[in-house]
């Protein structure tokens, strides 16, 4: 059985310390590592001014293109602010298909209004993370292209549904 070629570079997700994405990106570039940090510009308002600020599209994560060999991985892991490579199995970094990175690059370069969208699936238990209903838990349901939060009262065998913005919920 032939071993997979470990010298071919693949894209991998890197978990960074909170709010260190841009610093880690710069440090990786200085080490000669091909990195990609998708970001979006948002208008921030203060009392005296407004300013466009770049925010990571996926807070706490960026992508690197490296060969799957111990030297390349160690080169990334030694960068200040890097927490770990995202693994499918313990100790086995999960490669990301080139097509997904290419599509993501195209979306970011297009400069359309992008918003992070939680990776949620129908039937998953979720909690509202912000707004007046902060902390409410229920099951995510899709109905006619809308997202609903279904709150069930098991004892009564009854439920109530509320239309929600999926970006306002988090997995439990």
List the helices and strands and how they pair.
Elements: E1 9-16, H1 21-30, E2 34-36, E3 39-45, E4 50-56, E5 61-67, H2 70-77, E6 82-85, E7 87-89, E8 92-93, E9 95-96, H3 98-110, E10 125-128, E11 137-143, E12 146-153, E13 158-164, E14 169-171
Distance between the termini: 42 Å
Share of residues in helices: 10-25%
The name of the CATH architecture of the largest domain is 2-Layer Sandwich
Order of helical and strand elements:
EHEEEEHEEEEHEEEEE
Largest sheet: 5 strands, antiparallel
Poorly predicted ranges: none
Shape: globular
Fourth-tier CATH superfamily name of the largest domain: NusG, N-terminal domain
The gyration radius over C-alpha positions equals: 20 Å
> Could you give the count of β-strands?
14
Indicate how many domains the architecture comprises.
2
What would your notes on this structure say?
The chain folds into two domains: 9-110, Alpha-Beta Plaits (2-Layer Sandwich), CATH 3.30.70.940; 125-171, Roll (SH3 type barrels). It has three helices and 14 strands. Strands 1, 2, 5, 6 and 9 form a five-stranded antiparallel beta sheet that branches. Strands 13-12-11-10-14 form a five-stranded antiparallel beta sheet, with no helix packed on it. Strands 3-4 form a two-stranded antiparallel ribbon. It has helices at 21-30, 70-77, 98-110, and strands at residues 9-16, 34-36, 39-45, 50-56, 61-67, 82-85, 87-89, 92-93, 95-96, 125-128, 137-143, 146-153, 158-164, 169-171. 18% of the residues lie in helices and 42% in strands. The chain has 172 residues and is of the alpha+beta class.
């Amino acid at each position: 059985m032939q071993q997979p070629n470990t010298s071919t570079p693949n894209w991998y997700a890197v978990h960074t310390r909170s709010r260190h994405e841009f610093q880690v990106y710069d440090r990786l570039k200085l080490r000669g590592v091909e990195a990609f940090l998708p970001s979006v510009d948002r208008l921030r308002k203060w009392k005296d001014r407004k300013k466009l600020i770049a925010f990571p599209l996926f807070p706490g994560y960026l992508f690197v293109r490296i060969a799957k060999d111990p030297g390349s991985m160690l080169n990334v892991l030694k960068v200040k602010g890097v927490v770990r490579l995202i693994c499918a199995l313990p100790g086995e970094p999960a490669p990301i298909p080139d097509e997904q990175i290419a599509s993501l690059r195209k979306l970011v370069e297009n400069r359309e209004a992008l918003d992070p969208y939680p990776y949620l699936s129908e039937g998953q238990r979720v909690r509202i993370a912000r707004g007046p209903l902060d902390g409410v838990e229920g099951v995510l349901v899709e109905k006619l292209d809308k997202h609903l939060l279904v709150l069930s009262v098991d004892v009564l065998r009854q439920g109530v549904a509320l239309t929600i913005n999926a970006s306002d919920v988090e997995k439990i």
